[in-house]
Amino acid sequence: MLYELATLSCSLLEQDAVSDAAHRWVSDPDAEGRVLGGWRTEIGELAKIVVLRGFETNDELQRERHRALLNKRPFDIGDPQVRLQMESFAPFPFLPKVEPRTFGRFYEIRTYELKTGGLAPTIDAWEKAISPAKAYTDHLVVNMYALDGRPRITHIWGFASLEERMALRARHYAEKLWPPKGGPQQIENATSTICITEPWSPLQ
Question: With 0-12 CB in 10 A as exposed, 13-18 as middle and 19+ as buried, what is 119?
Fold first, then answer.
């Protein structure tokens, strides 16, 4: 399984229209891949619509990527001021495929830019930490590494509330179950965005 994270940046007043357009694009009969999640940013850089899709093969992902690149209105967007970013990822190998389920209203998307050579030790650290920190990592939707651009990972988490997120993190940090031992040492830069689900998102 491979994943694509598409981010559409627009004005605050355009969010509903851009979300509807993105939904039409990924639901088109010609579209490949499986829609997994759709969100809009709530805390962090605002007015972004984020779409997560899964692909069984790289060929499938590349065909869908070319459908967007060669289209005059990718993601059904008619306004050239709307910025589109498409990123390709592979999942951490020990994690299950993303399946539609209910995590809660709030989703966190975290991206860590890694030091050169930092991906392998990061994957190893996460694999060792997942089970001991199960009460927290049950909220992990996916962790995946970028197949292009700067070495980086993006992980998505779902919570019923921000209070739930903070309580889980505080508990697991206090018990030294999180973060994964050896993981933070590989991080060069980190960003976090809180999102809320779109009505058409399979992940809720």
Answer: middle
